[in-house]
Amino acid sequence: MSVLVTLIHIGVCIILIMAILLQSGKAADLAGAFGGGGSQTMFGPRRSGTLLSKVTTICAILFMFTSLGLWVLSGKGGKSVVSGEAPAKAVATETKKEPPPAPAQPQGQTQPSQAEQKPPASVPEKK
Predict the structure, then answer these.
(1) In which band, very low, low, confident or very high, does the pLDDT at 99 lie, cut at 50, 70 and 90?
(2) In 5-126, which ranges are E strands?
(3) Residue 34: CA atoms inside 13 Å, Cβ hemisphere, count?
């Protein structure tokens, strides 16, 4: 349904743009630029509606209704994109601290084997 309303909306938009651009303004002549138009009304003389002005009015009304229709249809979905997904599990990763590398030994000394090395002191857990 929303595809149909969207297509109608796009068609109305294109027709409305063309109808507005093809119309000439009310004050198309030079006298209209200075307020002269043969009438003392605020917005210029009232003329009979042309075909383009009627098309513009109809398209403007259709544009408003299709805009409201698209707004109503956008709220009907209501489902989230991730509605079917399970929540992410918090993965606790413990980082093992490795002992720092042993300092460089002078040439005459040897490093002790792993069996001779002391295990790192463990820190008791706090409760």
Answers:
(1) confident
(2) none
(3) 3
